[in-house]
Amino acid sequence: MIIGYPMFNEDNFDPVVDGFGKRRGFWVHIPDDYDTVGITEKIPLIFAFHGGGQFREAMVAGKWGDYFDQNIAFVIPLGEPDPCANNPLETQWTQPGFGANTTPMMDTNCDPATQVVDSFGDTMTYWNASLPGTFNDVLFVEQLRAMILSRFPKLNANKVYATGFSSGGGMTLSLLCYRSNLFRGFSVVAKMLAGDSQRGDYIWDGVNQTDRTVS
Q: At residue 84, does pLDDT exceed 80?
């Protein structure tokens, strides 16, 4: 039991290590009747991504935890601090677009190529699609999806869904754009929709190709 719900955590599986060398955290809920229901019809799987600055608990209590008594499996990954952010404790999802304001200091692990200057002269991080670290979390989710489906063969690989709140919605959009072949459907909650950009990445609302930062 985790926070009062029947779930596995990352310690019950082989380590999943991302492109930054970090062992990633996640929770997995498998329905109680997995062994019986999975005989006649494979069980759908939902990936649920928390918002920026939140933790896995935010996607369980009072939200998806209410569906744990149904024949649906859940994976709830944990974000990691953006290596370019000031706050080393604030969880985020690394994806194409703006990260946190990094003025006046920048983490030494941050790729200098992520630095751009906004219209106020402040340094911002911008993970554009050409930077290797941009797809760190996309690759993490891809690896995690494969491992979970292999470990639980009665889950339906053709009915895997992704949903996310706020920054987690941005992560869901990243999967829609770059790994749509791995998911049946997507649900984005409370996330600003992005404009287009001459750099080929989606970005935060209010910034478009006329902005010197991204054009």
A: no
Closest to 141 in 3D by CA, of 24, 55, 44: 24
| Residue 141 banded pLDDT, cuts 50, 70, 90 | very high
Report yes or no: 162 and 47 within 8 Å, Cβ to Cβ.
Answer: yes
The number of C-alpha atoms within 13 Å of 158 and in the hemisphere containing its C-beta is 2
Calculate the alpha carbon distances from 141 to 111, 137, 161 in Å.
22, 6, 12
DSSP codes, 122-170:
-EEEEE-TTSGGGGHHHHHHHHHHHHHHHH-TTEEEEEEEEEEETHHHH
Q: Which long-range contacts (CB under 8 A, 24 or more apart) does 61-67 make?
A: 61/3, 61/4, 65/5
DSSP for residue 19? T
Residue range 8-189 forms a domain whose CATH class is alpha beta
